[in-house]
TrEMBL record:
Source species: Roseovarius halotolerans
Coiled-coil regions listed in the entry: none
Keywords: Cell membrane, Membrane, Transmembrane, Transmembrane helix
Protein name: FtsX-like permease family protein
Transmembrane helix as UniProt keyword: yes
Location(s) in or outside the cell: Cell membrane
Membrane-spanning intervals of the chain: 12-33, 251-278, 299-332, 352-372, 393-413, 419-441, 760-786, 792-818
Primary location recorded for the protein, binned into one broad class: membrane
Listed GO CC annotations: plasma membrane
Amino acid sequence: MRFARRELRGGLRGFRIFLGCVILGVAAIAAIGTVRESITEGLAQEGAILLGGDAEIEFTYRFATADERDWMNTKAERVSEIVDFRSMAVSSDGERGLTQIKAVDDAYPLLGRIGLSPDMALDQALAGQDGVPGAVMDPLLSAKLGLEPGDRFKLGTNDYVLSAEITREPDNATAGFSLGPRTIVRTEALDGSGLLGPGTLFSTHYRMDLPAGADLAGLQQEAEAVFSDNGLRWSDARNGAPRVAEFVNRLGAFLVLVGLSGLAVGGVGISAALRAYLSTKTETIATLRTLGADRQTIFLTYFLQIGVLACLGLVLGLGLGVGTPILLAPLIEARLPVPAVFAPYPGPMGEAVLYSVLTVLIFTLWPLARAQDIRAATLFRDAFGAGRALPRWPYLVTITLLTGGLLSAATWFSGNLMLTMWTAGGIAGALVMLGLASVAIRQAARRMKTAAHGRPALSWALAAIGGPGSTAGPVVLSLGLGLSVLAAVGQIDQNLRSAISRDLPTRAPAYFFVDIQKDQMPGFMERLENDPAVTGIDSAPMLRGILTRINDRPAKEVAGGHWVIEGDRGISYAAALPERTTITQGEWWGPEYDGPPQISFAAEEAAEIGLKLGDVITVNILGRDINATLTSLREVDFSTAGMGFVMVMNPAALEAAPHTFISTVYAEPEAEAAILRDLSARFPNITAIRVRDAIDRVSGILAGLASATAWGATATLLTGFLVLIGAAAADQTARTREAAILKAIGASRARILQSLALRAALLGAAAGLVALGAGIAGGWAVTYFVMETDFAVAWGSAVMIVSGGALISLLAGLGFAWRPMQARPARILRARE
């Protein structure tokens, strides 16, 4: 400790890059965790307002029964009923737009206040004018329809007057993904509109204002026990916006894994900085060894120094990572659709510290262990040029255990073992590839040096890259890994957008039509079948149900959090095997079957859940349980955005239940407007969902996700740039001597500068090319295996990566070219190194 304290008297010289890498690594992970925790805390504190009540019971395509309402009324001080569904809003001049309708009662909203423009009470806005019921609407929809407050429009067959535009909807975070902007009306104002007929696709939400101190967990258990077969779904203020919370946690975990790649780059910089620092301590270490210092003394002297400086970096990194989101809280909150409470949180700080401490230990033990094993005589000549290639086995075991601990921590915090392993494998593979590439670059430079005869600047650059003391290793490793992450993100983003915005529309239908009544099907088909621009029509009966039990066991116990179990799913029935349907296992029941309920399941989803032929599946439809035997598995391709049902039953099991039909229509783009106009005018209750609008909405969400991921990857690149600066700074003495020798033999400053610039640009371009290969490989793996879509190289992004690598390296090289350029040969060559 005494030796370490005396060494630290020299200040931070030689450790600036070390500190920078630690600070950036901690800051990136702490900032991501702080934003994630701030949103989570905001959701927790505002859970009741976001939900619209202390608790909510949701039913699929039915209203609560008298018994269910009585139970809610006995438990709650107030109950509010909300009906949620999609429909078409039509302006007086015939303009149409898809809207998500929220039909409310007098009690809405139980909590919070809805914001309107012009400012007025919701009761006043929904009262209407001159006997016409009122409505309030999202500004996006009113702008699309060309409506102003006071204008009239239609929902179904009823007229409404637009009273105000919605500026704030307190419970909008619970709605999840929606294809249409919001319209709010009174439930009774929908009478006679034709929008809530038998079999219409809608959901009801009953928000409850409970007495203070109500036991939410106990009430949930009681409700699910009393109405276990009614298909209800319970939510409460403990997690008022579960979809948002889950999304935030998943995105945060993914971004932390992206941040780990920044730590890996920082680790390379930490190791390089420590090696460079120890090489300047040759005489000190040799003197200590000569005076009898053993290996442990040498190791602990510099290990304690590293520990002190690492702690300083951790503190500064935490301050930066936690302080920045808090300082920028007003800007971040303005962009968030949910509340957030920005403050220092122990969880994210602990996570960042744990990751960083493990990373620092992993990347410092190796050079420290090698330093203690080198003999004093060797240290006087070259600190790291001789001695053992590998540290002793206890250090190798320790490094392996620390790496395992880092991966275990990442798995624990992210909650996703496969994603963590793929990320770790990708980082390790990229580091190995970049390490091999740096060796190959040095060898290639040596061979190409002779070919550059007659071009002195290029020859000097190649000699410097391939010669002893080359910075090719740290430059390619640090810059290459940061560029690799950005390249992979760019490839994934471009391919996913391409699959959605370019490939999908060529296979997807033009429209989804829902809520088609059975007696409307003949007229609906007549309009489409007589239109030569219509290239295809698929229609099927449509119900919604919740898969509640598998072999008389709760489905959630059997299938965990599988998406088929999580919500209500579309269910259809058919007698004959539908066209283009392939049975993979089992047999179809056939047109004449009239026995007990049978069900056919999507093969891929059945395999994920663990279903097999003969299993009994319980589906709750409109509050009634149907027990059906699994008799066949089918191929279902959801990637085309066409019609596909996870579950199909025999007609006798479902056709007596109230239901409507769904239809997908394939048509030429120029005919879409006429089809929509004719069908919505003749059948006002039918809802048309334009697939291209849905694609645009999804593309917008993906753009936001890609932007968030790119910001996370930028932290990696910034760390790489810092390591690159460190490599350039460490090489400055050698370049100064090199410049002095070149000047002594008559080289001009311009030619020397050209050589330095060429060296930096070549190394940057090489790092970019290797990063491009790693990024394309990583992008292909994620796109093909995870996204399960076709992959094509996005060359625009690729060219930017390569050129960006060359430019960054060139700027760093030129930034450190001033001192070598100003060097005086006589002073440099006479000086003792």
